[in-house]
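Ops channel
N.P.: pipeline sanity check, posting one input/output pair.
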């Protein structure tokens, strides 16, 4: 795998059975988001994704992992791919990974902090902003509240109390 930035699609939750399969905690939208990639990195180790099945708690098999001990050794490791391997975006779409680290400013351009994380608990995206004093706050990533403007996010400071 290359040295370019990596995007996390999943984490290994633990072994499944005795044949080397692993349970996956998926961070991507669906199993198909991971299934389209044959080569992934698991804990920095390049592995070949042989198969993945299931929806709620997917189960994956990597060609290089052949027994339960090998699968158990992957527990807690992140499954990543190079950023360039992601599909192209349509107008107005974004990847959560692209928002992290962007500066946040108010409507006048005054700095408010930096996007620290992006969460989605089912009602839409929330951005976690780390303020200059180190405190963090969650803001809905919705038009008029927090808008992506090129390489920055314009935030209504009333929502960042």
């Amino acid at each position: 795998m290359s040295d370019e930035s990596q995007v996390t699609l999943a984490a290994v939750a633990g072994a499944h059975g005795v044949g080397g399969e692993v349970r996956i905690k998926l961070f991507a939208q669906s199993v198909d988001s991971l299934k389209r990639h044959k080569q992934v990195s698991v804990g920095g180790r390049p592995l070949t994704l042989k198969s993945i099945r299931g929806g709620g708690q997917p189960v994956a098999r990597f060609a290089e992992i052949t027994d339960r001990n090998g699968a158990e050794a992957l527990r807690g490791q992140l499954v990543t791919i190079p950023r360039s391997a992601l599909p192209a975006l349509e107008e107005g779409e974004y990847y959560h990974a692209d928002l992290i680290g962007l500066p946040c400013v108010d409507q006048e351009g005054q700095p408010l902090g930096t996007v620290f994380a992006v969460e989605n608990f089912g009602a839409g995206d929330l951005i976690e902003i780390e303020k200059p004093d180190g405190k963090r706050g969650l803001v809905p990533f919705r038009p008029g509240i927090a808008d992506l403007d090129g390489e920055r996010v314009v935030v209504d400071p009333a929502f960042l109390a």
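N.P.: looks fine end to end. The radius of gyration is 18 Å.
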